[in-house]
C-alpha cells in the first residue's frame, strides 16, 4: 500500500511538472505503446530482471547508461550506436555497460512488435526497472521517444560530469539540460549503485617514486582512503574496479548520502556536495529520509528522461540499437 501511494504521488507530481516542461515532453505519453505493443514495458522489465539476476551489477550499469545517453544529444539512444568516433568510443564511455540487457530486450521487442518500440525508450525503461529491481521506487514514465541518428565522440566530454567537477561546474552543466540544483543532488544519488575504475578518483591520491599511493584529499575519510589505496595498488589501477557505495553496493537506497556525510564519497564530485551550502542541506535531509529521497528521485528521474527528447519526424525507430536504419 505504501509503495502504491508513493508511486501515485510521483505520478501526480509529474503532471505538475509537465506544465514547466511541455516542449520536452509534449510528444510523450503514458501507455504510448498500449495499442501497438501492449507488452513492451513488460518485455523490457523481464530482460532487466533476467540480466540482473545473473549479474547484480547490471542495475547500476543500466542506470549509468541512461545518464550518459541523456546528457549527450538527449535521451535518444545515441550512446548505443557503434562505429568509428561514436559516443561509445570516447574514453569516458569505455566503462559504460548494460548494452547486452538493452540488446536482449530489443531483440524480443522486434520479434513481437517489429519497428515499433524505440531504443531510446528501452534505455529509459530499463534504467527505471533497474532502480526498482535494486530496491528503489517504482516510477511511471511516459514513452514515445525516437532514436537519434547522430553519435559523435566529440560531444561526450563537454556534456557529462567529470568526477573532479566543483558544485558550480556541475550546476552549470545540469542547468544547460534543464535540470536544477535540487536535481543535481537527487540524481547524484544514482551513485548508490555501480562501480568505478581507480582512474576515476586517482586525483585524490599521489603516487610516489616507489609506486606507493598517498592521500592528498583531506576531505576523504582516512580509513576509507587506505582501503581504496590497497585496492588500487600500482600496476593494477587501470583494471581494478571498486564499488561506488562501499556499504550497500548493489542496493538502491539512501546510503550514498550517509557515505558523503561520513566523508566516504568515492568521487571528488560527491564530496563537494557537503562543502557547499546550496547542496549540503539536501544531502543531510536525504541521509535521514529514504522515503523523501525516493519521492524526489521519481520527479528528477522523469525530468532527466525528458532531456532532448526527439519526436515526430525527428530521428527514427531503429531496428537494431547499434546501427542506424539504412
TrEMBL record:
Question: Per its UniProt record, what PROSITE patterns does this chain match?
Answer: PEROXIDASE_1, PEROXIDASE_4
Keyword annotations for this protein, in alphabetical order, are: Calcium, Disulfide bond, Heme, Hydrogen peroxide, Iron, Metal-binding, Oxidoreductase, Peroxidase, Secreted, Signal
Question: What residue range is the signal peptide?
Answer: 1-26
- What InterPro entries does its record include? Haem_peroxidase (IPR002016), Haem_peroxidase_sf (IPR010255), Peroxidase_pln (IPR000823), Peroxidases_heam-ligand_BS (IPR019793), Secretory_peroxidase (IPR033905)
Plant heme peroxidase family profile domain residues are 27-325
GO terms for cellular component: extracellular region
| Molecular function, one GO term | lactoperoxidase activity
Quickly give the catalysed reaction: 2 a phenolic donor + H2O2 = 2 a phenolic radical donor + 2 H2O
| Stated name of the protein | Peroxidase
Q: Write down the species.
A: Cucurbita maxima (Pumpkin)
Amino acid at each position: 500500500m505504501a509503495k502504491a501511494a508513493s508511486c501515485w504521488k510521483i505520478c501526480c507530481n509529474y503532471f505538475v511538472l509537465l506544465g514547466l516542461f511541455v516542449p520536452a515532453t509534449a510528444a510523450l505519453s503514458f501507455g504510448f505503446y498500449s495499442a501497438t505493443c501492449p507488452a513492451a514495458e513488460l518485455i523490457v522489465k523481464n530482460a532487466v530482471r533476467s540480466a540482473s539476476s545473473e549479474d547484480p551489477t547490471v542495475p547500476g550499469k543500466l542506470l549509468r547508461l541512461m545518464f550518459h545517453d541523456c546528457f549527450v544529444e538527449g535521451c535518444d539512444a545515441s550512446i548505443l550506436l557503434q562505429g568509428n568516433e561514436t559516443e561509445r568510443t570516447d574514453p569516458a564511455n569505455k566503462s559504460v555497460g548494460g548494452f547486452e540487457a538493452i540488446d536482449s530486450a530489443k531483440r524480443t521487442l522486434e520479434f513481437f512488435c517489429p519497428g515499433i518500440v524505440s531504443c531510446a525508450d528501452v534505455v529509459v525503461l530499463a534504467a527505471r526497472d533497474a532502480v526498482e529491481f535494486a530496491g528503489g521506487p517504482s516510477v511511471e514514465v511516459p514513452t514515445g521517444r525516437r532514436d537519434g541518428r547522430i553519435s559523435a565522440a566529440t560531444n561526450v566530454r563537454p556534456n557529462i560530469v567529470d568526477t573532479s567537477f566543483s558544485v558550480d561546474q556541475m550546476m552549470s552543466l545540469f542547468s544547460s539540460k534543464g535540470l536544477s540544483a535540487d536535481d543535481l543532488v537527487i540524481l547524484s544519488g544514482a551513485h548508490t549503485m555501480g562501480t568505478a575504475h581507480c582512474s576515476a578518483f586517482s586525483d585524490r591520491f599521489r603516487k610516489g617514486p616507489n609506486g606507493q599511493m598517498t592521500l592528498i584529499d583531506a576531505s576523504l575519510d582516512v580509513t576509507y582512503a587506505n582501503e581504496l589505496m590497497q585496492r588500487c595498488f600500482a600496476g593494477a589501477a587501470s583494471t581494478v574496479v571498486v564499488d561506488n557505495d562501499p556499504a550497500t553496493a548493489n542496493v538502491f537506497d539512501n546510503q550514498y548520502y550517509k557515505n558523503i556525510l561520513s566523508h566516504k564519497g568515492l568521487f571528488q564530485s560527491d564530496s563537494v556536495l557537503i562543502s557547499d551550502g546550496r547542496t549540503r542541506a539536501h544531502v543531510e535531509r536525504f541521509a535521514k529520509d529514504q522515503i523523501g529521497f525516493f519521492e524526489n528521485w521519481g520527479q528528477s528521474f522523469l525530468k532527466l528522461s525528458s532531456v532532448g527528447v526527439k519526436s515526430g519526424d525527428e530521428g527514427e525507430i531503429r531496428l537494431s540499437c547499434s546501427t542506424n536504419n539504412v
